[in-house]
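Input record (one chain):
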Amino acid sequence: MSGQRSPTSIVNRISDAVPVDSVSTLQVPLGLLAIVIFIRPVVSHPLLLGYEQIANTILIWMLFAVAFNLLIGYSGLLSFGHAMFLGIGAYGAAIGTLTWNLPFLLSAAIGITVATLLGYLLGRLTVARGEIYFAMLTLAFAQSIYFIANQNYGGLTGGSTGISGALPAWIESYRGVMYVSLGWVSFDWYYLLATVFVVAGLLLWQLVRSPFGRTLAALRENEQLARAVGIDVKRYKVWAFTLSAAFTALAGVLLEINNQGATLHNLSINTSGDIILMTILGGTNYFLGPAAGAFVWLFAEDFLTEFEMLVLPLSEFPIVTIELSGVLAYWQFFLGLLFVAAVLVAPREGLWGLCRGTLERLYDRINGDQTKHE
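The corresponding structure, as predicted from the sequence alone:
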């Protein structure tokens, strides 16, 4: 019938109406905004996780993963001890605020500065030693920092119990919900966290789009060729490690506020392992891939551990019920299988690359352009 529109014509009309090049250029800023706008209402839906506060944690880990990807995704260096920078940021803010009675912002700046300087010095010592030695040395330094924090020298770190109750004067908590209170105005802590997340994400995005970021990508693809054309490989890797440490420490400061303290877990090898898995699972080839990996990991952890009964088709009209609590208690096993599958199918693409490739093929098929896949 003449009044009906085919899928191809609809896609063509949308393509003509939307400036595709502009959208492609701004896809990362738009993606960051979409994350902070939609993640909280989505995860807090009663059919999913059912509470809003988990969105705060997911945003912080997303920032951690994107900062870590500056190292593994753009410079090709794998750190087994990156949690030490997260912990230094968290402990620096907590110690300065609670022990030294400094303003929180000054304490946070001290924590980030210490992590940045440590990242620079470790980078100078380790990046030229080769990939395997770099990985082992970062693990060794991280374990040393963990040991120092656990020993509680000078009563600064709280030992195995960590530090609790270190909050900025402008943060208030009421019935588990945190608010930013500036005297004349009060708003949900999530909005400040989301603002910092977007600003930090845009800074990292500009960094990887700059000549510095493009040079890092060239080093990752062919280090010998980059060295042959006169690029100072060590200097670029040191600064990649340093900047990644600085943004990771910023995530640590946000985590300290969100958790109202710092714990040894922030410094542990388990945290370093989790961020490696999240980043690779999401896809190191894409700026937002690690953020997707962090979301999938944390969402699965909360959703699957709380999921007990599968009711089909709807809980209001149960026809089939399946008990799953015993099976889904092993959520890490199933997520590990997903990680293995993603690495085997697309080692650098991850879940983000697989989903993006599927959508692009679907778009081309609807648009009638199948030559790309022949």
